């Protein structure tokens, strides 16, 4: 592969925006993304859905412009590329089609986006219970539409999916929301700032109006979620809302409790992180331009802090301008002048975030679930087992992982780290458990593929191996 100046990991709005700006400024860009097409989660498959699936909305269709901008001779997009290692230099090791390779570059932009917050409750691992974001993937990539579904949880995404389902002709059976009137009242202090993002506020109000007009029942201040399987394959869903026990039967139970930054790659890269109390999650530290404390590494998008698609695109542009400046393609003054529009867009997009964080907080029973609730889906570790281990002296992620294997499954802790942190912090208001250091490979790869990769440079601090150990290793063959 030809030499590149900038490697962008992730082809969502942040990555696409950055790639276009960097290429137009003269940089050779390599984009790596696991999906078959650019777009990320927000604009997934948008180039194939042009003028189709209108139920996904105008905001989704607008992403086609970002995809079109990638048609540039200095941009190379590699689909189905899984990044599993990031070393100083920087250099990126990635897998594609069962073959891994290492590519160096002067700069790397991490635009890997967010993940849905784990939302554990009794029955969340049952067939027919799935994250709401998974349904959006199906709606954007296939002809499959959710039918006879209940949306449960909290956050604006529930309203968007409900409106899309209504426009697609399969309205949800009900919305079961955990936010309360008290949450909404506490959010009002952020409303003046949120008015800078008035279009987003108005969009949210229009979504709620559409849901009401469609006659979809809404339950608020809901708690005590429990799902059980019925013999016919349906899901029985029980909860309490405003002091009353409620029961619903549905074909699908779609849950959501907001999104949090995906930090596995940033933690593996050694980037410093900080606690965002408003969003209840750790996020990597960075400056206005997305620069981090690791040379050559920049951040943009929801992986650097939740802000939404518009904020991600603006942040991607700012990061690209800074990289162009560091590469000698722009002066500092020119960078600042060209960044004015993106900085204004970023401010407007982020203005509403404090209001949303206060209005739609995850409930305590999700952050610290009951003892019978499965926390680690991969290893089937319950909250009760974790509490018992904590009571016996285990005080951190690593100790819990060693004793219970919590976080050692295929997801590598992505579906349990946040909940485990909540349990470790339970009853310790003044003590914050730092996130564990993620280790390579940050995504699962085949042993045969790892063995076929050319040898990595030896750590200068590593003790010399004996002549016996320096014999060529036999290649691993997988069944």
Care to describe what's here?
With 479 residues, this protein is of the alpha/beta class. The chain has 3 domains: 6-115 and 260-330, FAD/NAD(P)-binding domain; 118-257, FAD/NAD(P)-binding domain (3-Layer(bba) Sandwich); 363-451, Orthogonal Bundle (Arc Repressor Mutant, subunit A). The protein has 18 helices and 22 strands. The strands form 7 sheets. A 5-stranded parallel β-sheet has the order 3-2-1-7-20, covered by helices on one side. Strands 9-16-10-11-12 form a 5-stranded parallel β-sheet. Strands 4-5-6 form a 3-stranded antiparallel β-sheet. Helix 1 runs parallel beside helix 10 (309-326). The longest helix is centred in the middle third of the chain and has 18 residues, at 309-326. It is globular and about 65 Å long. It starts with 5 loop residues before the first strand and ends in a 27-residue tail after the last helix.
């Amino acid at each position: 592969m030809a030499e590149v100046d900038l490697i962008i990991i992730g082809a969502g709005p942040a990555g696409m925006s950055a790639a276009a700006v960097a290429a137009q400024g003269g940089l050779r860009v390599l984009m790596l993304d696991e999906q078959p097409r650019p777009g990320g989660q927000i604009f997934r498959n948008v180039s194939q859905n042009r003028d189709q699936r209108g139920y996904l909305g105008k905001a989704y269709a607008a992403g086609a412009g970002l995809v079109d901008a990638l048609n540039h001779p200095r941009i190379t997009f590699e689909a189905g590329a899984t990044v599993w290692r990031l070393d100083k230099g920087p250099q990126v090791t990635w897998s594609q089609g069962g073959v891994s390779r290492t590519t160096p570059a002067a700069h790397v932009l991490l635009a890997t986006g967010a993940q849905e917050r784990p939302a554990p409750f009794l029955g969340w691992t049952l067939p027919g219970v799935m994250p709401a974001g998974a349904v959006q993937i199906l709606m954007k990539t296939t002809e499959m539409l959710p039918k006879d579904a209940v949306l449960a949880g909290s956050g604006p995404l529930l309203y968007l999916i409900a409106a899309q389902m209504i426009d697609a002709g399969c309205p949800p059976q009900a919305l079961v929301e955990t936010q309360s009137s008290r949450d909404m009242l506490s959010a009002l202090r952020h409303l003046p700032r949120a008015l800078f993002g008035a279009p987003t506020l108005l969009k949210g109000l229009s979504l709620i109006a559409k849901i009401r007009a469609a006659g979809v029942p809404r339950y608020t201040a809901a708690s005590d979620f429990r799902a059980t399987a019925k013999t016919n394959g349906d899901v029985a869903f029980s909860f309490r809302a405003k002091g009353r026990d409620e029961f619903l039967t549905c074909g699908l139970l779609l849950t959501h409790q907001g999104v949090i930054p995906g930090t596995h790659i940033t933690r593996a890269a050694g980037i410093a992180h900080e606690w965002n109390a408003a969003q209840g999650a750790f996020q990597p530290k960075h400056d206005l331009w997305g620069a981090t404390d690791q040379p050559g590494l920049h951040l943009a998008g929801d992986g650097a802090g939740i802000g939404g698609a518009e904020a991600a695109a603006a942040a991607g542009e700012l990061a690209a301008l800074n990289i162009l400046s560091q590469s000698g393609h722009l002066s500092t003054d020119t960078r600042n002048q060209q960044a004015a529009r993106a900085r204004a867009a970023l401010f407007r997009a982020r203005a509403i975030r404090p209001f949303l964080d206060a209005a739609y907080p995850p409930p305590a029973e999700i952050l610290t679930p009951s003892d019978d609730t499965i926390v680690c889906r991969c290893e089937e570790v319950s909250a009760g087992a974790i509490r018992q281990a904590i009571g016996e002296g285990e005080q951190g992620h690593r100790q819990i992982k060693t004793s219970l294997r919590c976080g050692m499954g295929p997801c590598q802790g992505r579906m349990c780290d946040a909940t485990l942190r909540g349990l470790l912090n339970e009853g310790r208001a003044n003590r914050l458990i730092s996130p564990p250091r993620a280790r390579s490979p940050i995504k699962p790869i085949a042993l045969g593929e790892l063995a076929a990769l050319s040898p990595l440079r030896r750590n200068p601090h590593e003790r010399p191996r004996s002549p016996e150990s320096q014999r060529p290793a036999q290649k691993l063959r997988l069944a």
